[in-house]
Here is the input.
Amino acid sequence: MADVVRVAAADDPVRPLFSSGGELTPEARSRLGLDPAALRDLYRNMVLIRRADQEALNLQRQGELGLWGQYLGQEAIHVGAVTALRSEDWIFPSYREFGMAMIRGVDPADMLTLFRGLSHGPWDPRTYHFAPLAIPVATQVPHAVGFAMGCRLKHTDEVVLSTFGDGATSEGDWHEAMNFAGVFKSPVVFLCQNNHWAISVPLSKQTAGSIVDRAKGYGFPGIRIDGNDVLGVYAAVRAAASRARQGEGPYLIEAVTYRMGAHTSSDDPTRYRLDSDLEAWGARDPIVRYQAWLKEQGVIDDGLIAAMAAEAESAAQVMRTRLISLPVPPPGEAIFGRVYSNPPASFVEERDEFEASLEGN
Amino acid sequence: MEAVTMAKAINLSLREALTRDENVLVFGEDVGALGGVFRITDGLQKAFGEERVFDTPLAESAIIGVAVGLALRGFRPVPEIQFDGFIYPAFEQIVSHVAKYRNRSGISLPITIRVPFGGNIGAVEHHSESPEVYFAHTAGLKVVTPSTPGDAYALLQTAIDDPDPVVFFEPKARYYTKEEIDPAARVAIGKARVAHEGSGVSVIAYGPTVSLALQAAKTAAQEQISLEVIDLRSLSPLDMDTVMASVRKTHRAVVVHEAPVFCGFGAEVAARISHDAFDLLEAPVGRVGGMNVPYPPARYEKLYLPDVDRILQAADAALAYG
Here is the structure.
């Protein structure tokens, strides 16, 4: 299998794969080493997670979920990045990476219990090598760096993917973590999903500078790429991860995309966003573009496309049915069960009193 | 064993932990070559190498944030925050992640955060604070503070061994007090001790104020007043059994700490005693502590901090009540 890293310079194996505008070069695209089945899987996964995203929004609108944060338009990043990693590489997500978790194998109905008010973290991160969603912005970035420092101390060749949005790059934790990663030469790939919006604040008001240029200040390279090209994201993450695996340290990828939906189901983007933006970015839709390319390459046809759409439809229905049928865990366990591995006597007493009070009702 | 200072006892305890478990890591600002601004980590980097004892960039939030990541990767991090007043940048990581990660993920984080705290060292602003209540108020954290070299050694062993996160407050004004320590001793988290037996008033203290309470007990004894001194050692969990056993004997209690009385830890102790022993109490529970002001300039700190006289006044008031 051709390796994207081989075509690249040693110090920055990512940059030679891309044009100055951040597009994967035709040569690099032809040398990704992905067979037709793998190319189709990228498409299939994007379709699956987009349909799940839509279904989650439907569930929220129908009162089955308290909140939903769509990732519509960002599927190329979710699928490309996860596919580029090894299964043992940990991912530290922000709060919009439901699609990434699905690709890692987390059951989507279980995951949605978080938005149904039943759990703060419905999967075991150790099973999927996928950390809990981090809701306070950028606070997960130092966790990723610490984990990567640990991989280095254990002398393994694991790498860590730290993902966050453009808004996160304004937070102190982001800068502190980037700096630590540079100093400790940690095997971490920073993947900024620059979707142009932090709720209602546009990128132009988030920073006067460039996100990707900040990598240089912390002593490692970075690149800005087209985040709506699944193969570009795959190539960049794979090359940056290989570099990190070889002990060359962190890398920052700024994947430029667009949040086509609202910040969350509680948001009203018509108050701050122009329809013309949506039209322009809609024309660069990652699934439509990739489908056209796959057809051109002759690795997909209308029959397969329809079959994958049907599979996504049926998976969404399974997710819906399973979510609604999931039992509500007993309150004592849900509220007290996971706070301490070694619960103090006073804590056990409070739980007992609480459970006794429920029995009295 | 010869008498050692509390600073040395903590150093020996860290050495023991680093020796016993290769996953123990000690890191923070200036903890490497310098051995820490209080020399608590003196010689540890030389003994255990730069991979296990290391300096970090000057960024408290990331120090705690990377501790979370290291713990997830299987390490037992013992990060140091250089001073009490510098812990606030890390507050979000401690409260939102260190404390809550297990509740969210089922994964225990065996992190021990060491923090020198308290005043009485003639320092500039931000070096004399008592922020323990912010952390005691947060479920998921255990908050402890030793008052003697022996307890410092033993309690730190227990904290590092604990599968859950512990905030370990070191009374820096007591760093240079000496006593013989027993390296085999262990102090369970959540167990207070009776530091001095008495019968008239229970004086409940922790960390830097325990020695004051003991001095007060000594002075009071000259006037035939008997004070019992309880050293809480652990604020969360709180050992109310030991506190109540004392109050059942004395029927009077005074709580002492350096932090402001307003919303201070004494409020919790007083409320619990008042609730659990309302019928037994001969006087309202007294509270002695800092005023509700920012920690004053060093020239005035003795006027702000609790002292023997204020403890004795509170004890007298409890005895004279009614």
